[in-house]
Amino acid sequence: MAELQGTKGVSHPNLVQMRFCCWEQELILVLEYFELGSLNDVLNRASRAFFSQKDALAVEWATAMRWGKDGLLRKISIDMASGMCFLSGQKVPVVHRDLKPHNVLLKGSPEKCAEWSALVSDFGESRVLPPAEESMMTMTTMIGTPLYMAPEARCRFDSVFGENNVHPDHAGP
């Protein structure tokens, strides 16, 4: 429910829009469909194709993945930052707490990567921050994926689980 409350009435070109929701024994959310999938999916496909040279479309994506003025990585980063800035700038700010390539969906035609846009998704771990005058609350719970945590959160994670350990909730298959 926190995901719904934090994003209720929020609309921005770099945030995934909820199309429909209902509660029938469990919460059901219907979101827009993204043919390209997540940033993680695209990066994996592009890196495999770059080395194998078998997937011409993904090789083109890999070539476009650069940071320069017209680079796709730069545009995706700006889109992500725009969405996050919008959330944190609301009258009641929303903190995502699990921003990672898996939670960034790419919109656009597979053949026209220069026109792609990135949208932040998965607000399941997000929280609405109360106004500063109402609470001195800080985010103290270790939430998110360790590899993508902010350095200050990662330091707390390491002090609890050890530097080289993986939290049991985030262990691989």
Please specify the SSE layout and strand pairing.
Blueprint: H1 2-7, E1 18-24, E2 26-31, H2 39-52, H3 56-64, H4 72-88, E3 94-95, E4 104-107, E5 117-120, E6 127-128, H5 151-161
Antiparallel strand pairs: 1-2, 3-6, 4-5
Helix pairs in contact: 2-3
Classify the fold: give the CATH topology.
Answer: Transferase(Phosphotransferase), domain 1
Beta strands, count: 6
Beta strand %: 5-15%
Listing every helix as H and every strand as E from the N terminus to the C terminus, the arrangement reads HEEHHHEEEEH
The CATH architecture name reads Orthogonal Bundle
Nearest-integer average pLDDT: 78
Gyration radius, in Å:
18 Å
Helix/strand-derived category reads alpha+beta
Principal-axes shape call: globular
**Which homologous superfamily in CATH is the superfamily?**
Transferase(Phosphotransferase) domain 1
- If strands are numbered along the chain, what order do they take across the biggest sheet? 1-2
Our count of domains comes out at 1
Helix count equals 5
CATH class: Mainly Alpha
Largest sheet: 2 strands, antiparallel
